[in-house]
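Handout, page 2. Input:
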Amino acid sequence: MIIFFLIIATIAVFLGAAALLVIGIVKKNTGLIAGGIVALLVFLAGVAYTAFTFVSKTLPAMQKVFHVRTGNEIYKSVFGAPDFECVEVVHSQDNNMPNIANGIRLHAYVCPEELKRILISGDFESDTLDPEEVINSLQTPGHQWFHPEYLGDTVIVYRTLKGFSGESQKIFSNADSNEIYCVDYAGF
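Output:
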């Protein structure tokens, strides 16, 4: 609201300065010309102040939007804070722009208790797949590091649908439940 008021005031000062300059030049009145120049300088100061106010109010919000989260921050946002000190996020891909990127992807080493905690918190269905079936189950295969098919001869896939908007989550685990790949789709 303040920025709107500043913009209106700045435009009014500009119009006043322009009017004073035009009238002063037409009437050849140096006092009006000087007043127009002063009003023009006030206009420029108003533009600078409005720009400064706009940037200072917008910048923190923009920094928050474009903040690059660490793997641990992403893990915490997807699964909540881990109960155990056995989580090591190896790779991560964030999704700050839902419906544009391909969801959140994680590769982590966890202890079986941590995986159990994650699975208890959601309504997961599970399947056991061989590596070839894992490749076929991926919506967007071919990432440099996202290769759940490397988890071994038997890969356990946990799937859940998190909401009516099509949000879903897949967790790929090895048979020992100590290494996971996760893809979390928001609204796909």
